[in-house]
Amino acid sequence: MQHPPARDASRRPAVIPLLALLLSACATAPQSQAPTQQATTATTPTTPAPYTSTYKVPASGATLIRGATVLTGTGARIDGGDVLIVGGKIAAVGNQLSAPAGATTIEANGRWVTPGLIDVHSHLGVYSSPGVDAHSDGNEMVDPVTAQAWAEHALWPQDPGFQTALEGGVTTMQILPGSGNLIGGRGVTVKNVHVTTYQAMKFPGAPQGLKMACGENPKNFYGGKGQAPMTRMGNVAGYRQAFADAQAYREEWNKYRRELAAYEKKQKDPAGNKKDEDNKPPSPPKRDLKSDTLVGAMNGEILVHIHCYRADEMAIMIDLSKEFGFKIAAFHHAVEAYKIADVLAQQGICGAEWADWWGFKMEAFDGVMENLALTDLPRNGCAIVHSDSAEGIQRLNQEAAKAMARGNRAGLNISREHAMIWLTQNPAKALGIDKVTGTLETGKAGDVVIWNSDPFSVYALAEQVFIDGVLTYDRAHPPTQPPSDFMLGQFETGKGSAQ
Q1: pLDDT class for 323, splitting at 50, 70, 90?
Q2: Rounded mean pLDDT of 278-289?
């Protein structure tokens, strides 16, 4: 399927408000090495985090889902399987489980059960529906490096796209800035729950992401205005300078902390404690929010996600990560990942990809529909199905089915239970939340989807969706999930769904 050329920002006139809107998504916006010891030295100021998650797991009763075909997200399949959720967490997965007293039992014979789907690349909430200028909040297109910007500070929880994504079985997603800049800012991982504030959606304990972009987008936008970067070599120079500045900033803070420690030690020593004007505590450096973000990435506290299509550019970005001591979590879109799948596997880098988007600009020209399957092929390969689309996020299961089918046509013998890893376990790994969600394993979050049939069928529909054990969507009873406040009154009751 060729992605419509009209969505390629490289062909847009340089009208800043319009272009910023069109750059909402990385495709439409046309979008290991262990850290060194130096990179793990804490340097930035310690301040209370004012933007912490306020999400609380709601109280819920026990639920036993019985007699389904269960794909656990670990590569296993259980026929006639049961899933027990207690206290918001997976209590057991297997056959012939017993329900505790008072549990709700769902007879799921003929149906399929999977973990909740996870999308590592979404712009819901920052490019909300309806698509008007007032909702164009994904690209801070004033400078090639806007590492100081956080996507969460633009996230609108009332975006109707969250509901339609839920209807497609998506329980968790990473909301990213767009791909117009070399370094666009921080992303945020959220739970797909109906709330009023983004803090109440924010996934507790999930690390933030850092969105970077290589290739055509930044050079075309800024080069079209006669600014740097206007070439790919300018792109790389821009990344290097930003990280070099952040290294210097980190050393300023290291120096300050060394001097402060020496001063405090001196204050505790009566013999050396001279009460004169020369005996003053050191002054801290001026805080720089851009460098705070980049130091966080070099320290391994912020996960790096890079919009990058071409294999040669991915190799350059890997070298960049080695130069500055940060770890790349995933290359997004990664149309040519199949060419260096072995390198990505060796480096522990995931490829977050579409099933079949290609050819809508030059850097997307050399795509193959076996890309996901080939990225997955090497030992430790990490393939992820992502959307970058408010529509595609409703059908991630179908995208995985297409990629699985193309891999099987190539003789790779990919099973459904294995392909499910692309939708749940691997994205959880790339987001740093795989210890708490992404698979149906005891102790993990009760993020569960009941499908009316094989989820890799074009006819499959998510019938019920649980987040932390709470029935958050029920296709048979739509009022279970209240509509976005924006959608209230827009349609007759029960007719507002986009799926």
Answers
A1: very high
A2: 91
pTM (predicted TM-score) = 0.89
Sign of CA dihedral 322, 326, 327, 329: negative
- Which residue did the predictor score with more confidence, 271 or 342? 342
Transcribe 22-63 into DSSP letters: HTTSTTT----PPPPTTTTS--S-----TT-----PPP---E
Amino acid at 413: N
Query: Mean pLDDT across the stretch 39-63?
Result: 73
- When pLDDT is cut at 50, 70 and 90, the band that residue 114 belongs to is very high
Rounded CA gap, 284 and 300, in Å? 23
**Which of 151, 119, 199 is CA-nearest to residue 437?**
119
Positive or negative, the CA dihedral 398, 469, 129, 55 is negative
Residues ≥6 apart with Cβ < 8 Å to 124: 159, 161, 162, 165, 173, 175, 390, 393
Q: What torsion do the CA atoms of 247, 248, 250, 254 make, to the nearest 10 degrees? A: 130
Average pLDDT, the chain: 89
> Residue 484 has what pLDDT?
79
Could you state, in order of their start, the residue ranges of all structural domains in the chain? 5-56+117-234+288-438
Q: 161 near 173, Cβ under 8 Å? A: no
* Averaged pLDDT, 178-206: 97
Long-range contacts of 252-258 (CB under 8 A, 24+ apart): 252/43, 252/285, 253/43, 253/44, 253/45, 253/284, 253/285, 254/41, 254/43, 256/282, 256/283, 256/284, 256/285, 257/43
The SS3 of residue 486 is coil
Question: Computed over its alpha carbons, how large is the radius of gyration of the chain?
Answer: 24
Checking if the pLDDT of 34 tops 80, the result is no
User: Between helices 232-267 and 289-298, what is the axis angle to 10°?
Assistant: 90
* Angle value at C-alpha 35, between 32 and 38, nearest 5 degrees: 160
In this structure, whether the domain defined by 5-56+117-234+288-438 belongs to CATH 1.10.132.30 is answered with no
Only one residue has tokens 């290739």, namely 215
Does residue 97 contact residue 138 with C-beta atoms inside 8 Å? no
Q: Is the dihedral of CA 15, 16, 19, 21 positive or negative?
A: negative
Provide the 8-state DSSP code for 396. Answer: H
Residues 6+ apart with CB under 8 A from 6: none
* 37 burial via Cβ count (<10 Å: 0-12, 13-18, 19+): exposed
CB neighbour class for 251 (10 Å; exposed up to 12, middle 13-18, buried from 19):
middle
Is the pLDDT assigned to residue 5 strictly greater than 80?
no
CA–CA dist 263, 252 (Å, integer): 16
